[in-house]
Amino acid sequence: MNVIENYPLIKLNTFGIDVKAKYFTSINTVNELIEIKKSEKFKDHELLILGGGSNILFTKDFNGLVILNNIKGKEIVDQNDDSIILKIGAGENWHELVMYCVDNGWGGIENLSLIPGNTGTAPMQNIGAYGVEIKETFVELEALEISSGKIVKFSNSECEFGYRESVFKNKMKNKYIILNITLELNKNPILNINYGDVKAILETKKIETPTIKDVSNAIISIRQRKLPDPKKIGNSGSFFKNPIIDINLLKLIEGKYPNVVSYKINENKFKIAAGWMIEKAGWKGKKFNNFGVHENQALVLVNYGLANGKEIFNLSEKIILDIKEKFGITLEREVNII
Predict the structure, then answer these.
(1) Are 156 and 137 spatial neighbours (Cβ–Cβ below 8 Å)?
(2) Catalytic site residues?
(3) What is the pLDDT of residues 10-56, one digit of tens each?
(4) Are 245 and 305 members of one domain?
(5) Residues whose CB falls within 8 Å of the CB of residue 214, separated by 6 or more in sequence, listed in order
(6) Which of 90, 125, 143, 158 is deepest in the core (most CB within 10 A)?
């Protein structure tokens, strides 16, 4: 077990924020994780588990122990003519997993192509895109309980999935370290191509009977067009959640903005596009020295080079206050603030 002091984290968070961890180590097996948890030296230190670093904004150095979860592996647990159950280590790259499944003809997560981060963090916020969420294929996960060192299983229902939410983001936050997840994928996939952008690309390419590979390629194309590559411009993808509002508030907003972008959830609840509100409020493409709001997607805050986390956090605060004033809606951040 190699623990490094004052370790730079700039390459381990997709915002590219230049901060340091007081202590840092990378673990490749469950036994290594258990070993470091038993260490007396670190038992009183704050703990942070990093995966792909894609859903985090550092506003300061981390005065504790950072563990990079690098547990790999893919295992077929069971299969039949219709489906396959796949167990995946938490340290596997999410997009590479999606490509692995697409290449094997296993459907269910192709709409989640090119989402940054690692597999272990995917259930934490119930990642979703283009009409699909991970909860739809999720079976269970195994996690290490930090206080006891025991390995515990969580079923789909026990994860309490919601919109960009799970039990691990609220009442169980910082209590467990996810080791692996298990998904059930479909060998006879039912495609979800209801989003307009996806349909448009398939129609442009004259693909009448798309495969999961076609859907994945379409979504990759959309994301590459709209979202900046974290390897080139620091960002964490969507910074804010799309808020859910009732029909009365939606009607008030429609009175002022007839072209409001919203999606019906039920008779009384609607999801309103946060990116549309931020753009309408004039923030899209705004640049402040070396940080700002991306020019192609107002949901994305970006670090153009040497910005610090406090600057980006303060920008998000200003956007939240402005949207509250203009629309009567309080935006919530998707990213974790450290």
Answers:
(1) no
(2) 164, 238, 334
(3) 999 999 999 999 999 999 998 888 888 777 777 778 889 888 888 89
(4) yes
(5) 202, 205, 207
(6) 90
